[in-house]
Amino acid sequence: MTEPRSPGMSSMPQTAPVHTESTSPAVEMDPVEYTLRKRLPRKLPKRRNDVYVNMKTDFRAQLARCQKLLEGGGHREICVHGLGLAINRAINIALQLQASSQGALQLAANTSTVELVDDLEPEDPDEAGEPMTRTRNNSAIHIKVFYPDPQ
Amino acid sequence: MSAAKVKMREKKMRNQPSSVQYSASPRHVESSAKHTHTHTHAHQFRTLQMQCRSDYGHLKFRASALLPRSHPSSAGAFATARASEVRTMLKATTKTTGSCHVFGALPKHMRRRAMSHNTKRLPCRLRDVANRMASSKKKKEESKGKSRKARRQHGNLLLEFNRRQRKNKWLETHIWHAKRFHMVKKWGYCLGDRPTYKCYRSSYRAMSSHCLLQDLSYYCCIELQGEEEKLLASLSQLTSKEAGPTFAAALSLSGQRQGSVDVYRAGQYPMQPLGPVTFLWRPRAQGSTHRQLWIWAHPTIKPDLLPELQTVCQCCEAVLPPAAPAVIPTEGVSALEPEPKPEKTPESKQITGTKRKQTFKDASEPSEKKILGDGTRSPTTPVTWKSSSNGIVISDLTMEIVRYRLIGPQSHSVLVETMEAATDCDPSCLWWPEHCKNESKMNLHQQQADVFHLLKGVYSTGELPSGTVLGLTVDDPRLTLPTKKVKALPCVKQEKRRELMLRGAPAHCCQSSLWESSVRDNVTVNKISNKLLNHMRSELLVPGSRLSPTPLQGRVPILLVHQPGKQVGHEMTSWGAGWDLLLPKGWGMAFWVPLVYRGVRIGGLTMSLKHSQNKGAAHFPHDYPDCPAGARFQEEQEAQLLYEFKRYPPAKRNNYIKHGCLAPFCCPWQQLAEEWELILREGGEEREEDRLTQTSTKADAVMEVATPREDVTVTKPPSRVTVLRNKKSLRLLSGWCRPTTSKGQRARRSCGVLPLDRAAMALFLSAHGMSLVWVRLSLLSKGKPELHAMVCVPTAEDLMLCGGGPQEPPHRDHFKSPFRRQKKGSKKEGKESDPAPASEPNSTAPEGPKSSLALPMGLWPDPLPSVTAHCSRVMLGWVTQGDFSLSSGRGEALGLVSVAGLLNTLFNQPAERRGTLLLRNPASLHYRVAKVNLEV
């Protein structure tokens, strides 16, 4: 299952919130009075050939992981997912895979929007009362890397 | 003759009569001694002597005395002398010598080891003697107890169990645990420490990817009832808003969330903390200001917390259990059911007083009942206190409610699979049918059940808002027990879970009948026994099918409380989140086994320590040295560690003096804080003189001045050291801990933290100079930090050094040999002056020997020298938990450091390497580089 020890697997949840900070919309409340806690993005069940890319793990390691799945693992296709800042890296990995396969691999990219949840905890809980939750959106990419069926 | 031979000879001679000496002239005796054992002349006694030689050769037999001599002597005297000798000889022959084993008489090749146990293996002629000896040796016949069959009979077994839990309480899952766990007696309970099978890693995996189950029923629950404002007014004395949300935090007050708070003695903040507690408000009933509050505390806090609560609530009137129904306050009314003693069921009341000495019949009759709840308490001990002035009622619900903790992202799946919302049924005298009559209550139940089903669609427990509470009534989980162990897996659904994720369970769904003590008692008393249930099952037409209709008694009110995972820091967010399951007492095993059958792992006390360590949270009582319970724990820990240390043979013990470790077993926090305050004060004065500031060389220089600090500390009032818990200050400090480059910088700018300069530092220290602060240290390279590892300040060169870490030069053990030391005493002056590495403080060395005699070698005697300046690197604090962290793949440690020391260090470090410290294990000379993290 997803094991936090190897963040390459459950990558998306862990790093993405950190890096999406700059993209978050302007906050209307005074930032001093609230503490922002980002919750994990929603996880989905993971197949064996799903690779969630993050910014913490070494790039080469993630690339090697994908290659292993395609060559040694016997999968005809894998899915590379990236969220927020990791989109770049996901694309990079997919292209590298394609380049190293001498054109045998094909790519099919999909984009989506992921809803993320933040908790806002008031620093002075008794006065301000209500802790808030807000949702914001972040972009994600899902690249299918596959060997085309021989026709 | 070797010493062993002498000893052996003495042993042999023990029972022998001393040899007889016939008074004769000294010359004669001398000459006779020469002839001892020579039998050449003794023809009269030859045969006898031969016999003597074979068996009693040791007998000093003066053969020469028997010889006829030319010496003139009377015949009478001669005869008496011979007579006495013969007597001695006869005496010697009748007495056995040496070891008393009969088979000593056997030649060696005929002896067998088993003969000493079984006399029948001896030759016949020796058997009688051996039997006689064996019977005389056996002191008393072992009292023959009951047969195993009798002992294992249900009633007798229960009697025995009840006797055994008189001193230490048993949890309901005790028997289950005792079969599988190493049990420890702690805090008045018998608790499972760790399983007997290997499961360290699999338990970690369970926590991070499936589910780990723990029995936390030993946590004490204290119930407070009264008007909301009065309760809040009283409780506000115990907490401070500076240290985070209090009892009055809006969401917790509504009952939607569980809250947690650090409790202090009334009005003493920030001094005298008691410890962390969690609390749960019962949701408001319509049109009533009467509230009910549960405070859950660790059993070691309870003895301090309960009197403190009684003081602030002015609840000094103890309500005696029998008088309970009469004293119910009349103001809250509608919400408050008439409350019979929540204390215990009547049968358990009778048990506790019975003494073993009483006749069997008296004792046996009541105590054959199973103890539910607290079995150690005497029935006359008050458990409820009420106030005459403000109507607050405090009751002690220890052991009244079973609490299970499920940790891990799949814990909700396990819960959903184990339990089913209760089905409704026809009215009868039980509580659930009564409940069913009420339309609004049934609506509520329906909504709660809906929310519970929504849980199924959630992928990870961490997705829910932390502290969410959900009340529920479920069917007896024993009915849906799978025949085989299965692993509960989630089935993700998209619909409708958004609201649950954002807001948690709606406010009215947090209500549960578990709050009513009458319902709790009803459920406990009417529980179907396993035996009956199995009997009903066996009569089913289709074996293994579900019982239908569900037995009426099988409806249990429960509360589910979400436990937040890792909340601080950026990595591993919400790791270790889970659910707490609250049950009425008596139902423990009924829920435990079905939970276990859903493929969870079971953890003990060790695992809960690891859980909080991986979560980066302080664990009570290990990490609270400023609380009374924490101080007690440290003393116990010191005694334990010292005991373990002494069990090693002296040559195999670590010499902590040589390792430059002053306090391997107990950390002198107070001394540390005082020393750092002094260093900074001296440093400040020095700075006035010259503006030069260097890293820690300055601190070293100051230390020399500070060495005779005894006079200073004596005059100072004994101010107790505290741990910094002020959120604002912590946040400030946390910003300063990060290096100013890369990611950290951005975070800091966005937070708008003021930069670390001298003014800010002085301001901070004026407020928290004497405090400690709780930090997480992650090693940058190799190394596994251990308990009480030292946190030190790196020098400027250490920061430049890459790879490994610096080494501590070995210290000299001045206490090793007092004798040698005394001899060297004259040379001592010469010794001191040589540039010995970080030499021992001279002032304490001479006074050592007396106390060091009591202490084992390798430990510093009691008046410790300056702890900060003892080693080549200045010390900041100690590690309270350290291990290789499976979640980060490196060594990680949690420890406390002096605020003054930390700030001074940070201030002197270059901005890009800020927050780098050194870590050294007590039994090692190698410093490891670590990064300090202070997460708020």
From TrEMBL, chain A:
SUPFAM superfamilies: AlbA-like. Residues 1-31, 120-139 are annotated as: Disordered. One of its GO terms (biological process) is tRNA 5'-leader removal. Component of nuclear RNase P and RNase MRP complexes. RNase P consists of a catalytic RNA moiety and 10 different protein chains; POP1, POP4, POP5, POP7, RPP14, RPP21, RPP25, RPP30, RPP38 and RPP40. Within the RNase P complex, POP1, POP7 and RPP25 form the 'finger' subcomplex, POP5, RPP14, RPP40 and homodimeric RPP30 form the 'palm' subcomplex, and RPP21, POP4 and RPP38 form the 'wrist' subcomplex. All subunits of the RNase P complex interact with the catalytic RNA. Several subunits of RNase P are also part of the RNase MRP complex. Component of ribonuclease P, a ribonucleoprotein complex that generates mature tRNA molecules by cleaving their 5'-ends. Also a component of the MRP ribonuclease complex, which cleaves pre-rRNA sequences. It comes from Cyclopterus lumpus (Lumpsucker). This is Ribonuclease P protein subunit p20. Signal peptide: none annotated.
From TrEMBL, chain B:
It comes from the Eukaryota. Residues 1-14, 817-826 have a biased composition (Basic residues). GO terms for biological process: tRNA 5'-leader removal. One of its GO terms (cellular component) is nucleolar ribonuclease P complex. Residues 771-935 form the POP1 C-terminal domain. Residues 578-669 form the POPLD domain. Its main location: nucleus. Residues 1-41, 131-154, 332-383, 803-856 are annotated as: Disordered. Keywords: Nucleus, tRNA processing. Residues 78-153, 160-226 form the Pop1 N-terminal domain. InterPro entries: Pop1, POP1_C, Pop1_N, POPLD_dom. It is found in: Nucleus. Residues 338-347, 359-372 have a biased composition (Basic and acidic residues). Residues 15-24 have a biased composition (Polar residues). It holds the Pfam family POPLD. This is POP1 homolog, ribonuclease P/MRP subunit. It comes from Cyclopterus lumpus (Lumpsucker).
